[in-house]
Amino acid sequence: MQTKLLLARLITILFGICSCLLSSSVYASAPEDNGFVRQIAEGVFLHQGPHVGLEHHARGDSANIGFVVGENCVAVIDTGGSLATGRQLRDAIIATTSTPICYVINTHVHFDHVLGNAAFAQDSPTFVGHKNLKDAILGNRGFFVEEFSTELGSTDESAVVAPTLLVEDERKIDLGNRELILQAVAPAHTDADLTVYDAKTKLLWTGDLVSRERMPILDASLKGWLAWLAAERDAVKVIPGHGSAGADWQTSTQPIKSYLQALLDDTRKAIADGVFLEEAHEHVGVKAAAEWQLNDRHARNVSRAYRQLEWE
User: Fold this and answer.
1) For residue 81, what pLDDT is reported?
2) pLDDT tens-digit profile of 92-109?
3) To 10 degrees, the CA torsion angle through 130, 252, 197, 234?
4) 144 and 115 in contact (C-beta within 8 Å)?
5) Most buried among 19, 205, 247, 251, by the most CB within 10 A?
6) R_g (Cα) of the chain, nearest Å
7) What percent of the chain has pLDDT over 70?
8) Can you say whether the dihedral through the CA atoms of 129, 51, 48, 188 is positive or negative?
C-alpha cells in the first residue's frame, strides 16, 4: 500500500514538472528584464528608447520598440533607428524564446522606428505596414542613406527595408492562440500610421500617435490627429512611440491631447488676429510646449499647423 502511495506521488510530481515545461515552451526564459527588453505583460516585451535629439550619437536608439510572443510566431513592433539597435532587439528575442520571428510590423515611416528592419532579413519575416508605408519608405530611401548611413552601416539603399504586406483598413494576425489587430489610421501624426492591439492583454502599441514626455511631431494632419485621439479605446495599457509605457488610455493620451488642442486653438487665434507665420511661434502654444522635452521642435509644429489651418 505504501509503495503504491509513493508511486502515485512520484507520478503527480512528474506530471507537474512536465506541465510546467509545456507551459513555458513559448518563452525560453521569459525574463522580466534581460538588459535590453523588459516584460510588461504576458508575452509582451518592450525596449524603451531614451529621449535624445537628432544630433545625439544615440539617436538610433530613441524609440520604443519590442515584440509579442504567440505559440507559433513572434511579431516585432518597430525595429529602432539603426542596424545595431535592430540586432540588439533580435538578440533579445532569441534569448527570450525559440519561437520563430514571423512578422516585423512598422508603425510609421520615421527613421527611429524602421531603420533596424534589415537586422531581421535573415529570418525571412513578413514586413507589415500601413498601405502608404511602402511608398513612404521607398520615397525616403535616398534621404535615409544620405542622413543615416552610420546607423544603417551602409550607403546601399537596399539596407532600407520596406513592408510587403500592406494594411488598408484592419487586418488580424494570428501568432498562435494570440491575435493582433492592426489598424490603419487616416492622416494624423503621419499619413502612414498603424496601431497594433494585442487582444490577449488589451495592450495597444500606438507608434508616435501617442508620445509621452518627448514632444510629438506633426507631419500630416493636426485635426485628424486630434480626431483619432478623441475616440475611446478598449486599451488597458498603451505603449507610446516615445516615453513611459503601461498607463491606461486616458492617462497616456491626456498630455498629447492638451498640447495638440493648444496648438490648434492658438494657431486659429493667431491667424484670426493677423499674426504672420514668421511670428506665429512666439504666440502659439508656448505654455503647452514648455511642458515637453526636446521642445525645440515646437516651432516646426506651429509652422505646419499654420499652413494647415490658414485656409480652413
Assistant:
1) 98
2) 999 999 999 999 999 999
3) -120
4) yes
5) 205
6) 22
7) 89
8) negative
CA atoms of 67 and 90, how far apart (whole Å): 10
Do the beta carbons of residue 229 and residue 260 sit within 8 Å?
A: yes
Dig out the grid coordinates for 17 from the structure: 514538472
Question: What is the rounded CA–CA span in Å between residue 117 and residue 60?
Answer: 12
Find all residues with CB under 8 Å of 197, minimum gap 6, and list them.
Answer: 180, 181, 182, 183, 203, 204, 205, 235
Provide the residue type at 253 as one letter.
Answer: T
Instruction: Give the up-direction half-sphere exposure of residue 244: CA atoms within 13 A in the CB hemisphere.
Output: 7
Rounded CA-CA distance 145/114 in Å is 13
Cβ atoms of 233 and 52 within 8 Å: the answer is no
The string of pLDDT tens digits covering residues 106-130 is 999 999 999 999 999 999 999 999 9
Q: 300: helix, coil or strand?
A: helix
Cell of 251: 492617462
Amino acid sitting at position 11: I
Number of helices (H) and strands (E) in the chain: give both, helices first.
10, 12
Name residues whose C-beta falls within 8 Å of residue 70's C-beta, 6 or more positions apart in sequence: 26, 43, 99, 174, 175, 176, 177, 178
